[in-house]
Amino acid sequence: MEKPEVIEYTKLDNFRYERKFRPESLNAHHIENIVLSSSAFFRRIYHPRFVNNIYLDTPELDSFYDNLMGKSDRKKYRLRWYGDVLGKISGAIFEIKIKNAYRGTKLSFFLPDFEMNESFTNSKCFNILKSADIPLHILDEISGMEMKLLNSYKRTYFRDVSGNYRLTIDNEITYFNINDNFNRFNETVKDKNTVVEVKYYEEFNEYAPHVINTLPFVLTRNSKYIEGISNYYEVSL
Question: For 36-59, how does the pLDDT look when each residue is reduced to its tens digit (9 = 90+)?
């Protein structure tokens, strides 16, 4: 399959750190001004784009609870694309996010074009996955999983003066109720908070505190998947 051009997509070849912040008392505009005034000299890269994800999980929500409990070694499975939530989707990616404590990497596979609408069922989702260049052992790994959540958010990208640290600001976060029986795209939950994330490869970990400490944000655990699932499922938090 020919690889589509997706400027905002970052392929990972090794582990990187992902440090998250949730400055709840600040709006996205204020946060961006703080980032741009940081002594790490963050500057915008790319144009802000909407990121959309469909998360897969077991019927028992194993990935959800692994994440919630902070399990050191865990995985998250999702389909990701950029732009509009609904309609003809091109350049989508199937990702397996692999976490080991604060470090993470991902396996990624480009997907054929598909139509995203209210009739997008679990069966259609897995037919798309099966038609992509995904190894059989990974298809076996996700067999029995189901679509559990769709989310969408606006992401703005920055990079520091060294080029080694990337920062993203996610706002306008929306969660959609989606499963195999019905896709209620009019049943949405808006998250008023903004999420900031600093990402860098392992070799730059030693200097990372100098960059992170230029930002007046408090490090926290944050998962849009946990936030979204808690809106639509009766789960123990």
Answer: 999 999 999 989 999 999 999 999
How is the chain split into domains, by residue range?
16-232
Closest to 208 measured CA to CA, from 198, 196, 216 = 198
Asked whether the beta carbons of 176 and 154 are under 8 A apart, the reply is no
User: Is domain 16-232 in CATH 3.40.50.720, yes or no?
Assistant: no
| 191 vs 170: CA distance, rounded Å | 11
End-to-end C-alpha distance for the chain, whole angstroms: 41
Q: How many residues does the chain have?
A: 237
Which candidate, 70, 73, 97, 91, places its Cα nearest to that of 220?
Answer: 70
- Which parts of the chain have pLDDT scores under 70? 1-13, 237
